[in-house]
Amino acid sequence: MMEKDVYILAIESSCDETAAAVVRNGRDVLSNVIFSQIELHKLYGGVVPEIASRKHIEKINQVIEAALSEAGMTLDEMTAIAVTYGPGLVGALLVGVAEAKAIAFAKKKPLIGVHHIEGHISANYIENKQLEPPFACLVVSGGHTHLVIVKDYGEYEIVGRTRDDAAGEAFDKVARAIGLGYPGGPKIDKLSKEGNPDAISFPRAKVENAEYDFSFSGLKSAVLNYLNSCEMKGEEVNRADVAASFQKAVIDVLAEHALHAVKEYGFTKLAIAGGVASNSSLRERFQKECALRKIEFYYPSPVLCTDNAAMIGAAAYYEYKKGVRSGFDLNAVPGLKLGER
Ligand code: KG4
Ligand code: ZN
């Protein structure tokens, strides 16, 4: 007997993107609508939580309506309603959670709370139909830097994490220091193409007794010190060289740790996820290194790397299949750990 198709309406509002998507059977994206608040937060040089929550509440119904209409479907045709319930900004999360609960309650649909990072990892399933666990995944976003072993759908082991700044956070802070504005990642990516990545030698930090852990705060300080010393000496700063050299230092460490883990754990597959995974230089580097080592390399399109709801719908499908359901008492959990419920 053919199994019935599973249609999930997924909602994501953990940070500064109000997003909704309709996903069929975890892998087919029928719509993926994203309202980005970046323009609004640019003025302040970063995300202002209060403003983010207010914008989510204003936009969420329109975004859901657009997602359903692009998919050519109605709420009644949805199998389940999924929503990011952590980690993230509490007020921002609450908007999505309250919305999903209201829809699930009114339409008598199952509700599935999804972990944001599980969503980022699951973005890889959408365009790589053949990808199945187990594999290693490097999750690099504005709030997280995790080296994760995906043992099975919904089963994760974090083998490495950042001790201080997340990779994306380092990009954003360095971008601000060289006057590029928010969000810094894409701007550093672009400017780096005009710079020499070997012009300035910035540190590649190791964490003692934790070979897969990361630390980016020393690198950020080294960039700030470099900028200061140029200013003191009255030397002009080549911003493209700073961007390219900083970016290379980050990518070196990410690549080294990820490739080492793949080898030590005996995997043949490596995936990347999160906003920083859309970095063009990082993608090229991983592609090259994986090809040399005969490792299958997986990465989502840039639009599926940064925050979106399609990835939440992909993750929710596998939770749904396992029988995971959230109660109507589902709450936002800003510090939710991966693998926790
Ligand atoms: O995954 P994401 O959209 O949100 C979080 O869950 O944090 O990631 C946003 C982060 C920001 O720090 C942004 O600067 C960074 O991803 N980012 C990039 C690029 N595009 C976005 N970093 C480096 N290169 C990029 N092309
Ligand atoms: Zn994210």
Which molecules other than protein and nucleic acid are bound? 5'-O-[(R)-(carboxyoxy)(hydroxy)phosphoryl]adenosine, zinc ion
Number of strands: 10
Spatial gap, N to C terminus: 33 Å
Strand percent estimate? 15-25%
Broad shape:
globular
Structural class label? alpha/beta
Strand order of the largest sheet: 3-2-1-4-5
Poorly predicted ranges? none
State mean pLDDT (0 to 100 scale): 97
Oligomer: single chain
The SSE order reads EEEHHEHEHEEEHHHHEHEHH
What helical percentage do the residues reach?
40-55%
The largest sheet is: 5 strands, mixed
- Counted by DSSP, the helix tally is 11
Radius of gyration: 20 Å
Characterization of this structure:
The chain is globular, with a radius of gyration of 20 Å. Helix 2 (49-71) packs parallel to helix 3 (90-107) and helix 5 packs parallel to helix 7. The chain is built from 11 helices and 10 strands. By secondary structure, it is α/β, with parallel strands linked by helices. Strands 3-2-1-4-5 form a 5-stranded mixed β-sheet, sandwiched between helices. A 5-stranded mixed β-sheet has the order 8-7-6-9-10, sandwiched between helices. The mean pLDDT is 97. It binds 5'-O-[(R)-(carboxyoxy)(hydroxy)phosphoryl]adenosine and zinc ion. 5'-O-[(R)-(carboxyoxy)(hydroxy)phosphoryl]adenosine is lined by residues 15, 141-143, 168, 171-172, 183-186, 189, 274-276, 278-279, 306-307.
Give a topology summary.
Blueprint: E1 7-12, E2 17-24, E3 28-36, H1 38-42, H2 49-71, E4 80-86, H3 90-107, E5 111-115, H4 116-127, E6 135-140, E7 145-152, E8 155-161, H5 167-177, H6 184-192, H7 217-233, H8 239-264, E9 269-273, H9 280-292, E10 296-298, H10 302-305, H11 310-321
Parallel strand pairs: 1-4, 4-5, 6-9, 9-10
Antiparallel strand pairs: 1-2, 2-3, 6-7, 7-8
Helix pairs in contact: 2-3, 4-11, 5-6, 5-7, 5-8, 6-8, 8-9
5'-O-[(R)-(carboxyoxy)(hydroxy)phosphoryl]adenosine binds next to helix 5 and helix 6.
